[in-house]
Give the backbone structure.
Amino acid sequence: MAIINLHQLTYHYPLTDTPALTKVDLNVKEGEFVAIIGPNGAGKSTLCYTIAGFIPHFFKGDLEGRVEVAGIETSSSTLSEWVLNVGLVFQNPFNQISGAKYTVYEEIAFGLENLGVPRDEIKSRVDQALALTGISDLADRSPYSLSGGQQQRVALTSILVMQPKVLVLDEPTSQMDPIGTREVFGVIRSLAERGITVVMAEHKMEWVAQFADRVVAIYEGRVLMNGKPREVLTSGRLVGRGFAISRYTSTAREAVERGFWPKDLELPVTLDEAVQGFKK
Amino acid sequence: MNIEVKDLDFTYPAGVTALRGVSLTIQGGEQIAIVGQNGSGKTTLVKHLNGLLQPTLGSVMIGDWDTRKVTVAKLARRVGYVFQNPDEQLFCRTVGEEVAFGPYNFGLDAQKIEGLVNDALQLVELSEKKDTNPYDLSPTWRKMVALASIISMDTACVILDEPTTGQDAANIDRIARVVGELHKRGKTVITITHDIDFCAENFERVIALSKGQVLLDGPAGNVLGKEEILAQTYVDPPQLTRLGRRLGIKKTVRNQEEFLAALKLK
């Protein structure tokens, strides 16, 4: 049974003529990790906002079709009901951090305080969440004194602590260092293993290939492809359309032309696959 | 114009020491990438180059100007800094006004300003959007407006703070072209980046910072191959460098051409 059901979703932002999304169908199963890829302006963030209920509850505009997450339809719910099931991590941590709290620790606790969770439970959940994302040592710092990548970890942690059923992430590692990025992908993968459903807009194809169960390619507001990471990420349909493509894939594609990569072998998406293929 | 950073220490008012004994000499016209773990001091370091921050200890010389003795307004004539987040930088009603703001504040005449604005907008491929409000553009293009607003100041040194963050392949290529053109014009370009493939393909010198200190500094071909040392500051070598290593290629290959050429030799 799918926990996210989008059916023929078409959406216009207020005062715009061109739809940001057109007839999008998407089903995501519980515990699945789905990556959304696409060039800038394709509709990735809009899709994230819709699954997270910010569209239509915050951004008004014109929404057609059906959006159902965790058994509730957006049109018949409020944002405050919606956020109990779905957490959204914004692309820019500046948009996430409340500005109302002096320390990282209080910032992470903010959502739980608003739900009236008992004090002891807040404490233990905040400590666990800080440890999970590796920022326990930043607990007493001001969120605004941190670097961009550290702020992104705070933003992610402030959502994880809410224990949402569905986690929506809009390029959550864009300002993170490379190994930190890989670690965060690992944390998110482990959450999916525990049954949390993950939808992540992302440009970093090496990690998408390695960690996601499925990839949805969005182009000009429509679903261009929807399938296994290898099938989508090596497809010629992504070429020349502004999609990020890993160096393993693009270099192997060029190597086919020059006779260094076997013509009948599938193109690689991960380092290991590239190593095996180039050895042949 | 050379830049000389000498024994630089910096401690934020709240008590966090972000830089410890950093020394660097940057020659005019160099293309430098600064890499390193989040919180390693990259942004703190570059904010010293245009005087936004003052050394706690040590000194920073921009040509013959000591940043402790020259105002930020004056330093802006030599060092332009493109913020990580364009929304912290943009405030004018049109793209044209935004890009004209820097040279206008230098007191240049109208004709000269127009020339600089047109040139900068052409370079970032925004000539058609001169009368558009920056906030009617996508975040991708706002980033290019922020870049143009610094290019138009025609400073000897241009600093880019994570220019490729959240950018798609087409825009990363566009940013690479801008960096290449600034190089041709003899500008010093200093870029903070986590995009190590972008770094390998576009920069000649790489500085890796770790916990406020210089961990590695040298030609990209040397620095980017040092996998174990880079790991100390949470940086992986570029994808093709790692692939080359696994295939037994000794040289640190930095791009597709180098990789395929090395493969051919094998």
